[in-house]
Amino acid sequence: MSAEDARLGERRVFLNIPKRRSKCPKDGIIHTEVIPWIELGARTTKVFAKTINRLTAITTNQEAGWYLGLNDEKVYRIDKAVLERLAKDRLNPTPRSINISVDEVAWKKYHRYLTNVIDTDEKVVTWNEKGRKSEVLDKYYESLGKDGCAAIESAAMDGAKTYISSTKEYAINAVIVLDRFHAVQKANAAADQVRQDELRKARRYNNEELIALTNCKQRFILLKKKNNLSQGQSVNLKKLCEINRPIYKAMLLKESFLQTYDFENIKDAENHIYEWIDQALFSGLGSFFELACSVLDKVQYILNWFKKRISSAISEGFNNKIKRLKRMAYGYRDVEYFKLKIHQHCGYLNPRRFQLN
């Protein structure tokens, strides 16, 4: 048989290896010799397979195959085999964490999601699985065992009831935090919904001035903090608030909600947020009414931010890296391979951060 080895300069190297078959004196069966430094079923040496794996960590399988003279399918099979072997050593059992962040990311169209668990101290993905139901996160906690679950001190998440129920059941010592990043995101979404509603009304009545101030190009003046607005944006916002009362109320409610995180004392923050809930419920704005109901239901998780200032913003950063990884590959049909690639780029299988054997 022949097996491809690591390159010698610019030249590809193939080893011609005679394989022997011998009769075992114990069971009387003829066996083919096993060569430990050959990648099983790939006709490459393990050294060359490691080279392929390291190359796919910085580029696509297609580009790696072009550079090495291999087809995409062979690169995929070798890379997956190497990652599976590494995952068995580094991800089994599941690494324990003290502070975690839980979030989902789409891996396929039509609401196909992966749940990712991130160690916020080490800043790595430690576990992922297909789906986003409570049963999915249950698998993570079950893989940690009772002692591993008890060691978790805090868990940041976006407020999904499925993740909260699973965490409350298993991680009994964890402080569940609906972090600042997602809370601000929801407040911005409510303000932007008011803008969209007012834009539709302005178009219905042909109000050109209001259309100019509420179109999509102007949406960022509602999403930014007042202190971060440019001079021109501040002028436009002031003018918009003068001519449109719903948007003016939406801006006041959004800014008031963000002030919750400026308090040093949790008691002051609690008083402020309950006052805000009353204002939002009677504001007459549908999006803020819904937000107030959601905040009322999860107010304790928002206030937990003052006890444990953990954020799941790191999850959003990893989600962007995962989406970029998916775009580079034009999607993944094999979800198990995609999970391994996430660990390769964002977790303990990353050759840049961790020395891999």
Element layout with pairings:
Layout: E1 2-8, E2 11-16, E3 21-23, E4 30-32, E5 38-39, E6 44-45, H1 46-56, H2 61-68, H3 72-90, E7 99-108, E8 112-119, E9 124-130, H4 134-150, E10 154-157, H5 161-170, E11 175-178, H6 180-204, H7 208-214, H8 220-223, H9 231-243, H10 245-258, H11 266-281, H12 286-297, H13 299-303, H14 313-328, H15 335-346
Condensed summary:
The chain has 15 helices and eleven strands. With 357 residues, it is of the alpha+beta class.
What features would you describe in this structure?
The protein has 357 residues and is of the alpha+beta class. It folds into 3 domains: 2-90, no CATH class; 99-178 and 310-346, Nucleotidyltransferase, domain 5 (2-Layer Sandwich), CATH 3.30.420; 180-301. It has helices at residues 46-56, 61-68, 72-90, 134-150, 161-170, 180-204, 208-214, 220-223, 231-243, 245-258, 266-281, 286-297, 299-303, 313-328, 335-346, and strands at residues 2-8, 11-16, 21-23, 30-32, 38-39, 44-45, 99-108, 112-119, 124-130, 154-157, 175-178. The strands form 4 sheets. A 5-stranded mixed beta sheet has the order 9-8-7-10-11, with helices on both faces. A two-stranded antiparallel sheet has the order 1-2. Strand 3 and strand 4 form a beta hairpin. Helix 4 (134-150) packs parallel to helix 5 (161-170), helix 6 (180-204) runs antiparallel to helix 10 (245-258) and helix 6 packs antiparallel against helix 12. The mean pLDDT is 88.
Distance between the termini: 26 Å
Overall 3D form: elongated
Proportion of residues in extended strands: 15-25%
Return the domain count: 3
Helix count equals: 15
Low-confidence stretches: none
Query: Which value, in Å, is the CA radius of gyration?
Result: 27 Å
Give the spatial strand order of the biggest sheet.
9-8-7-10-11
Helical fraction: 40-55%
Biggest beta sheet summary: 5 strands, mixed
Average residue pLDDT: 88
Structural class: alpha+beta
Q: Care to count the β-strands?
A: 11
Order of helices and strands: EEEEEEHHHEEEHEHEHHHHHHHHHH
